Amino acid sequence: MVNANDAPNFFLKKPWEKHHSPKYLVTLQNTMGKYLMAENYHEFNEDILKVWFGKDGNISRDVIRFETPEGTLIGYVAITNLSGQLKSHMLFYAILPEYFETSLPQLVIESGISLGESLNLQNLKISTNGTRAAPFDRVLEEMGYHPVKSSLELQLLDFKDFLRSHPPEGITLRKLSEPVDYEQFVEVYNQAFQNSFDFIEWTTENCRKFITFQNHQYDFAIWQASIDDRLIGFCNLSFDPLENVGLVSGFAVLPANQHQGVGSFLLSLAIEHFKEKGCVKIRLNTDVSNENAVKLYTRVGFCVIDSLKIKTYKIF
After folding, report:
1. Digit-coded pLDDT (tens) for 143-176
2. Cα-Cα-Cα-Cα dihedral sign, residues 49, 51, 53, 54
3. Has keyword Mitochondrion (predicted)?
4. Which domains does the chain have, with CATH numbers?
């Protein structure tokens, strides 16, 4: 780690210039992500960066970079709302791990908040990831902020045979590369998550963008559950062949059809799908306040990874 006795002007704060390559942001994000999450980290790339900032995102204005006096890039902070897919804007940041115990985390957070104020944003949040992000948690709590949401990472490492021989009565299942009916797909998502923290309704447009991105980045499939051709639930399956990791990247059942075995059967199909792909682990993420979801996931074999807990703080 760098010596924590750094002077106030040790870190140079500069705007992002058009000639700077986004690959430097990607490198910083991956370096910090691997430190925070180790083998559980999923590689960041420029395509994902484009999703975060959108094709019209002006990163020259909305990204602040941090350098050493020698001109070495060591961190950045930016603001995103995932191309309009989040209700609130988020501070998006990364610094090199050797600077975690310096004044840089505080400088990054303060600069991000100032950027949000300069853009006249009405809402702004920031998330930290795992126990190694403690320096950022300390800064935020010393500034008077407290987590408004916590999410847990769950992993399934013991691939037992969870597949039931038959789906719940009256349920039809199909595995596809994209939804049969995007309007129904969006309706299930919106009804399932309408009471979730910071919920914003999906539209068919941003749903199509999400599915297109998943098909581009992963070996992607969707298990859909229907009754009389009416969609009642789905499970998105994103397989990364490079890391042999399966990701449940979306999972929803209509509230009226929950607690009927639909969700657990979809998850069992997901596990079977990833087993066939040769996965070494399966991951998903859930809000710790959603006790029903946590119970369902742990019942089929997922285990909670507390060290990967995501905390979200509301700035304004």
Report:
1. 999 999 899 889 998 776 665 667 888 999 999 9
2. positive
3. no
4. 12-145 (3.40.630.30), 155-311 (3.40.630.30)
